[in-house]
Every structure is written in C-alpha cells, then in structure tokens.
Amino acid sequence: MDSFTATWFLSSYRHIRMVDTRIEAVDMSVSRRVSSLPVNPQRVLIAKAEELSRRGVKVYNYTAGQPGLPPDTEALNYFIEMLRRDPFKHFRYVSTQGLPELRTAISEDLRKYGGVDVEPSNILVTTGGADGLVLSIYTLLDEGDTLLLLDPSYSVYWDLARLAGLRVETCRQLYENGFNPDPECIKDKLGSSAKAILLASPDNPTSRVINSEVAKTIVDVAYERKAWIIYDVAYKHLVYEGEHVWFEKLAPSMDRLVVVGSFSKDIAIPGGRLGYVYGPSNAIAEMTKLKGVLGIVAPVPMQWMAYYYLSGGFKEKYLREVIPVYRRRRDAAYEALKKNLPRARVLKPAASMYLFPDMAHYIREKGLDDVGFTMKLIEEKGVAMLPGSIFGESGSNHLRITFVTMDEKNLVEGIELLAEFVGEK
C-alpha cells in the first residue's frame, strides 16, 4: 500500500468512526451493515510491515495480539501422532455445542484454576473468542439495545456493536485511575440505559486487571437491575503479579453472567481459532442454535488438540515455561520506554500483553494525530505500533505496544527507534 492510498484510507477511517450506526453505504451494491464497518488501521499497518519486510527492511512489529512463543512441542507431537492414528475421528463433524470430551475438560480446568463449577452442558465451544463475542451479543441483545463499553476497549467490541445495530454508552478508564472505570459511572448506566456490559480483564489494550471495587459494583448492579455481564477472559492466565478476577465467585449465580474464553493465548493457537462460552443454560442453548446457523461447529482438529492440552497436563507445563519469559519481556519493554521516552506516561502492566503509553506530548509535537503518527513511524523507522484511538476516544494519543512477540534485544531496539522518531535520541 503506497503512502497516498494509506493517507486516503486513514482519512476515511477517521470519518467513518465518527458516524453512528445509521450510516448510509457509499457503495449501494453491498449492504449498509457491512459498508458501515471501517477497515481497522491495524490491517494497514500489518500490510505496510509485510511490504517493508519483502523489501529487506528490518521491521519491529509490535502490533500482533498473539503469543510470542509457539505451542508446546510435546503437545504438538502428541496431537500429530493421535491424528495419524485416526484421521477420520479428528476431521469429522461433531455436535455444534462441541466435543463432549473437551467440554468436560474445560469444566475440570475451570475448577482447577478458578475453583468454579460449570457443568459441561453449560459450555459451548466456539471458533475463537471473537466468535463467542458474536454469539453472546446476538443472543442477549436486540437491535437498538444499549451496550455499555469501557473506553478504551478492544477495537472489535465497537465494530460488533455497530454490526448488531446497538447503541453504545461508555465509562472511561484512564491512566490516572490505573485504567479502571469509575464505579459511579457503572451505577449510573448499567441496567438503566444499558442492557449489558461487555468488558475484558485482563484488558486489551490497557492490560489492566479490574479492581475488586469495580468488579463487585458491576456484579451487584447487573443482578439488581437484571442486566447482562459479558466477560471476556482471553488473557486470564497471563498474569504476572496479583490474580485474575473471577466474576463467577462474586456473582450469586450464573443467571446474568456469560463468560467468553479463548485458547489463543494460554495454549498459543491463535490461528487455530478456538474458544468457548459458558453461562446460564437457556442462553447457551440459544447460542448453540445460532452457532449452528453461523458456523455449524468450531474447528474439530483444534478441539481435539485443546482436549489433549488440558487432559494431558500440557497447558500447565506451557504456562510454567512462558509466563517468566513474558514477564522478562514486559520488564525490558517497560524500562526501555521509561528510559528513552521520559515525557510519555506509562503504567507497568500486571497482566496481559501490552504497554499502553500516553504519547500525547510527542504526538502533538509532531503535529499529527495518533493514526498519522503510527503511519509515519513505520514508514520512517520500520516500527509498527497501533494507534490508541482505534480502541475508543479515550485511547487517543496512546500507542498499543505488544511486548510478548519479540525478544528483549529487539523490543529495546524498536523503542529506541521510536525515541529517535520523536527526537529524544
């Protein structure tokens, strides 16, 4: 993608993000539903990174929200051996709700790590965590309903809300509060104007772990006012200090709580597209019905692989090996940012995969917005980072920097190039 095309695209992106869900399609040959969705600048930056790499330029790519280490070798070898023994079993259709062996293993895994009891019958296996979000939103909410999002939030949340024709209310989560929202905002909006709240902990893009006061407020308000909680726990095992917050333990029942999980991070198969949802039996039954329409069944080979991971102890072994590596990478990236960009404001994340520094001083000094800043950064320095505004208005002038996908040396080198770009070196 050349500079002219990228500039045109990013200008269009900024314009579309400002328009409400009633946007008229520019190209009437396709649906307004689809043409109302902007292409995420992440796609542009990834394309630019690939183009530079093909030209022989070394690219420091901090954009990917995926593990930086491959799946466990022993688990892979076991899976391949089982696949060879009985290929038909591993590729045939299974029930839409998912492999019974895997749902039982997920139930046991939840009991092992969280001390929570979820029956296999209340678990649906999905095509990645994103599929679980789609099924949850379309099952629990109708067009015109209001969804409460924390701002900033994972960019896909905003697009799913638009696609489903939802109204969006927000509670801001800011640097000053450790990226935790104000409990008073939750009390004001959840269950009054908003029929549901969708949130992640640990978070993307901020990496914050929800604090106990906010978590308890969300549960208390949702159950009192009969609102839904959709809880995205894709990063629940990537915790370096402290603990994951299990809403299941705070809630009086699962009646208003739907939890969306993923195997992309904890067993490192993001391209395998496998996740799961659990919640009240009536909601899971309706999601299973919808899954049968939208995708029939989640990838069966990956379901078997996840089952072998959980039942064979491979997941526990993998986490023991990778968490210390990711912690070291986090420390290296954080210290490099503090050292080389003294006017950035950044929190040291206790979990997840991302630094989310406030770069307002440097971005203003360049006379750019954060989208233009990231495009110039990759063009001039070969450093790819995501603009914070794609995660919501409160993310503007921040950068999302993935710290798990490179070793410490390359993490530091890329941040030093960022410092050169803004004139700090």
TrEMBL record:
Transmembrane segments: none annotated. Belongs to the class-I pyridoxal-phosphate-dependent aminotransferase family. It holds the Pfam family Aminotran_1_2. Gene3D superfamilies: Type I PLP-dependent aspartate aminotransferase-like (Major domain). It is an enzyme of class 2 (transferase). Homodimer. Coiled coil: none annotated. Keywords: Aminotransferase, Pyridoxal phosphate, Transferase. Its cofactor is pyridoxal 5'-phosphate. Its EC number is 2.6.1.-. One of its GO terms (biological process) is amino acid metabolic process. One of its GO terms (molecular function) is transaminase activity. Residues 88-416 form the Aminotransferase class I/classII large domain. This is Aminotransferase. The lineage of its organism: Archaea, Thermoproteota, Thermoprotei, Desulfurococcales, Desulfurococcaceae. InterPro entries: Aminotransferase_I/II_large (IPR004839), AspAT/PAT-like (IPR050596), NHTrfase_class1_PyrdxlP-BS (IPR004838), PyrdxlP-dep_Trfase (IPR015424), PyrdxlP-dep_Trfase_major (IPR015421). It comes from the Archaea.
